[in-house]
Amino acid sequence: MTRALYVATFLAHFLAAAILSASCHVITPAGSGSKNGSDWNNACAGFTGSCASGSMVRGDSYYLGAGIYSTTGVDFNKAISGTSVISIVGANAGDHCTNTGYSSALDTSISPAHFVSGTTWVNSSSGNGTMWIFDTSYWTVNGNNCPANQLKKTGQGILIDGSAYTPTTASPGAEILLDQAHNGGVGNINVTCVELQGMGMGSDGDAADFSDLTSISCNSAGTQATVTVGSGDGVTRWFPAQIAPDGTPMPASQVTISGVPSGNFNAAHVLVSGNPSNSQFTYPVSCTPNATANSGSVRGAYAWGGLGGDEPLYIGLPATNQEGTYSFSYMSIHDGMNLVQINGGTPNGVFDHDYFARNFYIAPDHAAGWTLEESATSTYAIKNSAFTDIESTAWIVVLYGGAVNGFYVYGNTFAYSPNNKFNRRGVGNAIFSCINSNASCSNVYVYNNTVANVGGGGINSDSGVWTFLEPGDAAASNWFIQDNLAWNSNTGAIAGGGTPSGTFTADYNTYLNSAAFGGDGGAHSSVQANATDPFVSDPTFNLLLSSESIDPHLNDGVTLTNLGGQTFNVDGNNITRGADGTWERGAYEYQSGSPPAPPTNLTATPM
Asked: Which of 19, 352, 444, 553 is deepest in the core (most CB within 10 A)?
């Protein structure tokens, strides 16, 4: 090799290495060194400096270290450059940009990059308190701590937490917002392995959000108060709904104590715990040791419309938006009003392996697990996900001008906790609903879902399990409801006796301790009373089959043909349906012998 060629080769490799090194940047809550993001000894301080959104480089990756990031909102508004993507990634032991200065204290698989809101603030550019807003297209966010084919309730690597936020208007923002007000709409945004914690228990000033306390007392150490509340639907119902099974406080359980005349009991935005009583709870406070009082009030922290009041994930897109697709996968979205709220049009949206838990509402507001309204005709897939303890309008709803042509709802579980331990009031319009002014739902496929404990136990599931349609108000055609499994659940008819136009197929569904819903006259559907619980364990999450012989029609589902880019033949554990000669009904294929490894992070952090 000539000297000139050697030098040229060396320089080429050197420049390539320099370019590669420059393609990633690192961020910690406080930053370090020069704070230019070049390595962990010089990390950016949050999204500031060279790591501020407007200074980010298209095509580069930005790694977040573990820790608490206090924020009044981040606006991701870097102008697009063709289809070049900016990636935001949780750092972990195997993937952290650079070794220089890295330590296990920065590992987001051990402790998340935890974004928390201030107590009270308004960011007018992002919609009154939105924590992360995407104003431009082509972004990828990955918490980087989600094994394939596993649902996670918590521990995603990135946590966007609105539980301490109190809005100053009646319309709070969201934990993540895709913004309709900027740049003609956004798209090509993919978020995976991120936890969205809603605002928690809230108040809009209604009587239902308020209660007089009848007594309050301080412990001898002066560190904790015990409250007994009087009448008031909101308080007496909320507290047991907010207590984790082991009695520890849930992150969303914040209230304000006021008007107590003595003892230093008054406090704002406190997290509560409690006992099985509907009327008693405790909270941490620096009160006067052994003090007591008999007057004062309890109110949820101010937030519009009940627990959360916010929509943890809000997608607001112009009706003409054609910017591209978006996807949300391996996420945990919990403790908000509408957990997912979509207003506007997009060609394609995908929700895969997500966990949706505990929405809330105060009448007359609508609330649901997943909502689409005021949209251009769109295509959506909700698959391999878990919905738990949803109440109000529906679990999944299209309403008020929402339009979908190609809606694929498959491989999901829908369940209330046993004995209704979170005190859900049920839904008025079933699992999947197409209702209200000018909604349109065509080519809907509800396949291989499992519904458990929806109904009974004081839960008012008025209008059924599978579908609900207002034929005089919503347009619908070509619906297919097959290979689903219901356990211990109420069921219901298509409202008003109407059915979608075109093809309507409801068959090969199994109902254990559940009556078949009106409209399921399929010759291959099965109804069995006094059936044995068919699931392995956790009845709100995994819903794996313990046996396929509990009912003779658990394993004789109809073989479904993949279409629309969907994979109906693979369940959420990546097991091929029908590979053993039988196609199970419900979300999961039965596996003989030992069940698959359980999901991670189910008990370490109370929810």
From this structure: 444
pLDDT band at 467 (very low <50, low <70, confident <90, very high): low
- Domain annotation covers residue 118: no
With H, G, I as helix, E, B as strand and everything else as coil, classify residue 546: coil
Residues 575 and 506: their CA atoms lie apart, in Å, by 24
In sign, the C-alpha dihedral spanning 478, 399, 152, 73 is positive
pLDDT of residue 607: 34
- Answer whether residue 360 is part of any domain: yes
Q: Are 160 and 117 in contact (CB under 8 A)?
A: no
- Is the Cβ–Cβ distance between 380 and 354 less than 8 Å? no
CA distances from 118 to 159, 168, 281, 385, 468 (A): 15, 12, 25, 31, 40
Q: Mean pLDDT across the stretch 204-213? A: 50
574 in a structural domain: no
Q: Indicate the pTM of the whole model.
A: 0.82
* Host domain of residue 456: 334-517
Residue type, 346: T
The confidence score (pLDDT) of residue 212 equals 77
Q: How far apart are CA 90 and CA 108, in angstroms?
A: 6
Residue 112 domain-assigned (yes or no): no
* Domain total of the chain: 2
